[in-house]
């Protein structure tokens, strides 16, 4: 028995549908595989980026600790040097001693006590400003050194 034309058309349409569905399923599977590879690569890149960031953070922390220790060491040495120099000059007066034959050694065209008190306050104020400036300079030098280390690493 032969096939009538309607059966042939249905057969061809069915074959086309089966081929299309099969191709679609095969394409979906292929896309799923590609997506799985892509997803795996993204996860690996993410883990590597996180590991790099963690390492950078640890390196930054170590450099900061070293910079802080160096800053403290420098500031302490500077304070000791300043104290030593000031103590060495403490026995000297700001105003020269009165001449040996002076009838009133407590006067020298001004009241010596008042002058020494005023200049002592002035010197203390100037020393305080100098100390602040010195400490700021040490801190700035430390920050510059640390920042240069940051640029070298990146």
Q: How is this structure best described in words?
A:
The protein has 154 residues and is mainly α. It has one domain. It has two helices and no strands. α1 packs antiparallel against α2. The chain is rod-shaped, with a radius of gyration of 43 Å. The mean pLDDT is 80.
What is the gist of this entry?
The chain is mainly α and 154 residues long. It has two helices and no strands. The protein has one domain.
Main attributes of the structure:
mainly alpha; about 150 residues; rod-shaped; about 80% helix; 2 helices
Structural class assignment: mainly alpha
Largest sheet: none
Low-confidence stretches at least 5 residues in length (pLDDT < 50)? Answer: none
Q: How many individual domains?
A: 1
Q: How many strand units?
A: 0
The topology string of helices and strands comes to: HH
Helix-residue proportion: over 70%
- Count the DSSP helices: 2
- The residue-averaged pLDDT reads 80
């Amino acid at each position: 028995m032969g096939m009538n034309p309607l059966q042939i058309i249905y057969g061809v349409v069915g074959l086309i549908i089966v081929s299309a569905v099969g191709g679609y399923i095969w394409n979906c599977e292929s896309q799923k595989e590609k997506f799985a590879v892509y997803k795996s690569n993204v996860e690996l890149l993410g883990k590597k980026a996180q590991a790099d960031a963690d390492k950078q953070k640890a390196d930054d922390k170590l450099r900061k600790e070293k910079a802080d220790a160096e800053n403290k060491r420098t500031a302490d040495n500077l304070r000791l040097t300043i104290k030593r120099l000031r103590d060495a000059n403490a026995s000297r007066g700001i105003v020269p001693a009165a001449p040996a034959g002076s009838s009133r050694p407590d006067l020298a065209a001004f009241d010596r006590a008042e002058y020494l008190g005023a200049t002592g306050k002035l010197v203390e104020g100037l020393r305080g400003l100098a100390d602040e400036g010195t400490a700021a300079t040490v801190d700035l030098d430390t920050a510059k050194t640390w920042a240069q280390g940051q640029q070298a690493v990146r």
